[in-house]
């Protein structure tokens, strides 16, 4: 194998392998034809479960043995949770989590797998192998962690036994130390992902290939169906399928099965496309560094956001680099609204926003909230995964299939989720509560992305470990893992509904005043108690026997108190921001 020295010990039994040739430049030089890593797999598909992650020196050999074991136990080529649990020697609930996570990051729906939770859910063995392979991926780390900076040492308390090892940076640290420029850009991460695929592609193809009679490279072949499964890892930026882009499968007669192709030929083709994409991306990255830019071609700096775009606009991207992601980044002391018409693609990233209110009133597949503090983020409907990471004193309101919470502090999550919230990393003082808002199009958006309002597992967190093996900073040698701190349920007496201003809605549609997720009985009881108290106060005021002067004085006093509250709470700024849009 190309990575024999890395993925097989010296005494390993020999196996059919591929050796990549030095790739020529691909036939096309158009940026629109660049091969890209599928970010969803790397961003939302990694689980910090130790038994899913194999040592790099044994990776290919271990997965080959696992393939044989699974193939023997699943003759239909479909892996169920019980079979995966048995093969990996993990609890069945962790195996079910792995299949559910795989379902959430597949490029297309698999009707047999569904969302991974239905009875009999089973994944294609090829997808399972690819999913397990990328569990060995290590995320790109910041160029400087600033863990000893005296300017920020008092903000992110060192109460954890793992402090000094974890890569978590407080959002306040990010602001005070200006360390955003040290964080990997989107382009940096993509280059890192492509480099991982380039290094391991020979082993990946060997793992997927079928053995046939022949010698050397001719003994391993890939069918067109198996080749398409590589779409789990890579895609062309303009949306062309892999089999149509590859000359050896392009324009195959749909009525005739395509002839299997030697894996060595596939490796040459993949290698040349990855090499070309890496060269092109690296050149752009160097140009960016020379111009002292801090963001990739799809990122937007605050200067650009404030001078080139209106508050709620999305920066336009070169179509050749269009990755179906909308960014809301770097906002402070303001409010931002995104409707469905404002969101380009099926994913959104809310990054490094502080002391702000962010409304994402749109149907999405993926959402990421990263590095925010003292903010409220409303996510309308997310059909795959929400990931919230490195946030502090943030309120997240989300209707979603799944949510993953990592390395957060003093945050409250108001959730309508169909699966157990996944909690991992170095968390402190997290609280969860039922979903608490609505807007006119919410139920339509939930229906579009498949979020079921009759199922809400907001109060059933699934807790994994503190140490993330995918992050080399947080996985030092010799440090044992412990279970992450879980979330507690918000006191029902502190639960309130969150009102989205009516001017955000479609003017032609009547507002919907009901929460699509039924409230638990105890929360509903406290809400009813508060409504009754308000009605009693309103009735008492109406029944007061006052002359006109005293009525005006009472109204003035109420308005003054309300205005004082608006200023004290910071909500006055939100009113000014939103009415100005």
UniProtKB/TrEMBL annotation:
Its main location: cytoplasm. It comes from the Eukaryota. It holds the Pfam family TBCC. Residues 1-31 are annotated as: Disordered. PANTHER family: TBCC DOMAIN-CONTAINING PROTEIN 1. InterPro entries: C-CAP_CF_C-like, CAP/MinC_C, CAP_C_sf, CARP_motif, TBCC1, Tubulin-bd_cofactor_C_dom. Belongs to the TBCC family. This is TBCC domain-containing protein 1. GO terms for cellular component: spindle pole. Keywords: Coiled coil, Cytoplasm, Cytoskeleton. The keyword Cytoplasm applies.
């Amino acid at each position: 194998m190309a990575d024999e020295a890395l993925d097989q010990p010296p005494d390993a039994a020999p196996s059919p392998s591929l050796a990549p040739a030095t790739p020529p430049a691909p036939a096309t030089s158009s940026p629109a034809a660049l091969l890209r890593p599928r970010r969803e797999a790397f961003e939302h598909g990694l689980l910090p479960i130790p038994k899913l992650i194999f040592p790099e020196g044994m990776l290919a050999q271990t997965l080959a043995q696992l393939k044989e074991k699974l193939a023997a136990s699943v003759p239909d080529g479909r892996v169920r949770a019980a079979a995966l649990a048995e093969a990996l020697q993990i609890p069945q609930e962790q195996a079910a989590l792995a299949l559910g996570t795989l379902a959430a990051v597949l490029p297309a729906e698999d009707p047999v797998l569904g969302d991974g939770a239905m009875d009999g859910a089973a994944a294609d063995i090829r997808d399972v192998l690819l999913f397990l392979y990328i569990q060995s991926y290590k995320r790109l780390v910041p160029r400087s962690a600033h863990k000893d900076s005296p300017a920020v040492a008092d903000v992110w308390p060192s109460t954890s036994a793992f402090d000094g090892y974890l890569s978590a940076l407080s959002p306040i640290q990010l602001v005070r130390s200006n360390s955003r420029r040290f964080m990997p850009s989107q382009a940096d991460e993509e280059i890192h992902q492509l480099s991982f695929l380039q290094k391991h592609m020979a082993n990946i193809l060997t793992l997927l290939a079928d053995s046939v009679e022949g010698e050397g490279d001719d003994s391993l072949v890939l069918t067109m169906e198996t080749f398409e499964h590589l779409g789990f890892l890579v895609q062309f930026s303009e949306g062309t399928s892999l089999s149509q882009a590859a000359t050896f499968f392009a324009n195959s007669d749909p009525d005739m099965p395509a002839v299997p192709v030697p894996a060595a030929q596939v490796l040459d083709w993949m290698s040349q496309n990855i090499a070309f994409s890496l060269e092109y991306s690296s050149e752009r990255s160097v140009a960016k560094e020379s111009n002292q830019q801090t963001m990739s071609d799809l990122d937007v700096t605050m200067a650009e956001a404030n001078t080139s775009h209106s508050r709620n606009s999305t920066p336009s991207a070169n179509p050749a680099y269009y990755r179906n992601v909308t960014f809301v980044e770097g906002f402070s002391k303001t409010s931002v609204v995104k409707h469905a018409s404002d969101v380009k693609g099926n994913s959104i990233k809310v990054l490094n926003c502080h002391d702000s209110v962010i409304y994402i009133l749109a149907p999405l597949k993926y959402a990421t909230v990263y590095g925010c503090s003292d903010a409220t983020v409303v996510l309308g409907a997310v059909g795959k995964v929400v990931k919230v990471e490195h946030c502090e004193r943030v309120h997240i309101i989300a209707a979603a299939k799944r949510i993953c919470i990592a390395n957060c502090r003093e945050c409250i999550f108001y959730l309508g989720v169909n699966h157990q919230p996944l909690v991992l990393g170095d968390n402190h003082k997290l609280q969860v509560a039922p979903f608490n808002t609505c807007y006119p199009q919410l139920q339509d958006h939930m229906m579009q992305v498949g979020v079921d309002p009759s199922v809400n597992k907001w109060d059933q967190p699934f807790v994994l470990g503190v140490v993330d093996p995918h992050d080399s900073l947080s996985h030092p040698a010799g440090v044992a893992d412990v279970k992450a701190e879980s979330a507690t349920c918000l006191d029902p007496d502190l639960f309130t509904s969150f009102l989205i201003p009516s001017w955000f809605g479609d003017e032609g549609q009547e507002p919907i005043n009901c929460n699509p997720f039924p409230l638990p009985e105890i929360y509903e009881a406290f809400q009813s108690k508060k409504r009754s108290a308000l009605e009693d106060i309103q009735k008492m005021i109406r029944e007061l026997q006052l002359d006109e002067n005293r009525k005006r004085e009472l109204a003035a006093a109420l308005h003054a108190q309300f205005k004082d509250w608006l200023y004290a709470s910071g909500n006055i700024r939100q009113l000014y921001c939103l009415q100005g849009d």
